[in-house]
Amino acid sequence: MHGQHRADRHALPHRGQFRSDLRGGQVQGLVAQRPCHAHTRRTFASGGPRCGSALKLIGSNTSPYVRKARLVLLEKNIPHTYLVDPPSDPNSSVYRVNPLGRIPALILDEETCVFDSPVIAEYVDTLNDTPILIPRHDALARMRVKRWEALADGIMDSAIVVRNERIRPAEKQEQSNIDLHLTAVTRTLEHVAGQLGDRAWCEGDSITLADLALLSALVYLDLRQPERDWRSAHPNLAAWFNRMSTRPGVKTSLAEQT
Ligand SMILES: N[C@@H](CCC(=O)N[C@@H](CS)C(=O)NCC(=O)O)C(=O)O
């Protein structure tokens, strides 16, 4: 169920076939099984996950935001199908489900697509309690986990800016922009390494979204900035990363690197 699939674009409707609604776009045709209908929809409060087996995550193996969403689904053992269907392909189905044309996009049913990655993480975390990745009752602990996520997402954002500059023709690259974002990443790595110290988890005494987000950011740095030796600079981060890498969900995700 967790297997990675290439999207069967020929089975999908053409772009523009479905009008967008306020929830982010209709996704009829992208669900394999007959989905829940609005009148049968259960809320988190009234019964937890709905249509769990019909969940579809649209993404790519290089996107760190996708990795974060995928890791949340895997850690919580939520049945889903992972569709590699990046927006770099103009025929990508993502344009029919997310008007922003960005991944990750999580399709719940014919009516509902969830984006972006913090919203996906927050929603998916409500589907079960095993484990709870975002504290629910302790407002400060919850804020700290979301703040870790913001730091990790910020690393991703800056690394993507650098990547986008570096793939431009040399004469068009803006070195000051590259330097600005490389420095932001360096500074943020120093900060998170300091915050982590020699603790086992980023926040509290068990795994949270903070760990999954940070791991996703570091995997992306390894991919796009292999020259950055963050392991030597921050051995505590390296040790934490190695421990995290033994988790089954993380192993599955790491095996999906291109
Ligand atoms: N803040 C968004 C960022 C999503 C995002 O920018 N995704 C990138 C992939 S890394 C994307 O889809 N870019 C469009 C493209 O590649 O054409 C999130 O957290 O989901």
Strand content: 5-15%
- Indicate the structural class: alpha/beta
**Averaging pLDDT over every residue, what do you get?**
85
Termini distance?
20 Å
* Helix content class: 40-55%
Task: Report the bound ligands by name, code or SMILES.
Answer: glutathione
* Count of separate DSSP helical elements: 10
Features:
single chain, 258 residues, alpha/beta, Glutaredoxin, Glutathione S-transferase Yfyf (Class Pi), Chain A, domain 2, 2 domains, five-stranded mixed sheet, 10 helices, 45% helix, binds glutathione
If you had to describe this structure to a student in words, what would you say it looks like?
The model is unreliable at 7-52 (pLDDT under 50). This protein folds into two domains: 4-125, Glutaredoxin, CATH 3.40.30.10; 139-255, Glutathione S-transferase Yfyf (Class Pi), Chain A, domain 2 (Up-down Bundle), CATH 1.20.1050. It is globular. With 258 residues, it is α/β, with parallel strands linked by helices. α5 packs antiparallel against α6. The protein is 45% helix and 6% strand. The structure holds glutathione (GSH). Glutathione binds next to α5. Glutathione is lined by residues 63, 65, 87-88, 102-104, 116-117, 153, 160.
